[in-house]
Amino acid sequence: MAHCNTILSQIVKLVPRHEFEVLANRHHEGRAFRTASRWSQFVTMAMAQLAGRSSLRDIVDNISSQAHRLYHLGSAKLSRSSLSRINEGKPYALYEALFGKLLSRCQGKAPGHDFRFKNPLYSLDATTIDLCLSVFPWADFRTTKGAIKLHVGLNHAGYLPEFVTVTDGKTHDVTVGRALRIPRGSIVAIDRGYNDYGWYNQLTEKGIFFVTRLKSNAHYRVISRRQVLKDKGVTSDQTIEFIGVQTSRKCPIPLRRIGYRDPETGKHYVFLTNHFKLSASTIANIYRSRWQIELFFKWIKQNLRIKSFVGTSKNAVLTQIWIALCVYLILAFIKFQSKLTKSMQQILRLLQLNLFEKRDLMALLRGDPPRDNQLAVNQMALL
User: Fold this and answer.
1) In angstroms, rounded to a whole number, what is the distance separating the alpha carbons of residues 263 and 233?
2) pLDDT tens, 52-61?
3) Helical (H) or strand (E) element with 381
4) How far apart are CA 75 and CA 78, in angstroms?
5) Beta carbons within 8 Å of 177's beta carbon, 6+ residues apart
6) What residue ranges define each of the domains in the chain, with the CATH number in brackets?
7) Nearest C-alpha neighbor of 155 from the set 16, 336, 23, 279
8) Which CA distances in Å does 355 have to 1, 11, 192, 257, 293?
């Protein structure tokens, strides 16, 4: 009978230990460890994310109950004080760098997006993570409220968070959008929170396409009109240029205005884009697909621990967020590798219930019966 390590051990092995240690040495600050290590921190905090543990006591008690299996994980048992001290003081940049390594591995396995065109497709958005200002005084947002913002550029090929930045709650979405190095030829779906006519012009000059919604108070004139297929919900397809004093100076190029009525809700939308070759209905569907980034934010907030934190310093909070994002990429890699139709949530639930079971990971995801049960079935068949 083939021997299997625990499910958690097989998950952790998806993170190359030698690469992790190189990054740990590069991002080490302060005194050297005696018994604890950054690897032990990662294993403990990743287990907490997978198992849904929400406090230091809960995390340490859970990992302590499996102390006899930590050897196979290459991890040491951490006390609450040790784990808290590492989270508070050791640079979170290690896990930001690890995120980049895991992302590159996932990109090699990710499927393409659902559209016919070959351009990379991204959705940009940000979500606010509320914090108590009296507990997290460094996260000043409003008079009595603290917050940080998680900015994400979601690649629709595999729905991977390819661009991730964490800022204070006051940082405007478009400020982060301008700083992103989006590949030439990409199509970016953005909402009106990223409205910046000068940025639209810069994207066009860089060969990057955007799809957004036109502000209702925009001043423009129509240069030309195209025929539309009203049976597909398209109400207008025009080439326009801005005539406002400021907007015409910031964005002097012609753009495409598309009117679209959603056949399901009857709501009318007006889109703005610099892509003139795709059909109007495809442009509308690109913007509709932007909803995937909202689903991404909803998923990580519901299934990973990025709303309540086990430390109060900025470093501890960012450490927890980046480890959560690393766990998301590990789950995505497992999904791509298994080539099964199970959702990410189904995979996570299976793993939560079997973290310390000694079973083959892929057999668990396929739904194969445990080997002991299969052996008993085969013995019964011989009677």
Assistant:
1) 6
2) 988 899 998 8
3) helix 371-382
4) 9
5) 124, 190, 194, 196, 199
6) 7-99+311-377 (no CATH), 203-278 (2.20.25)
7) 336
8) 21, 9, 42, 52, 28
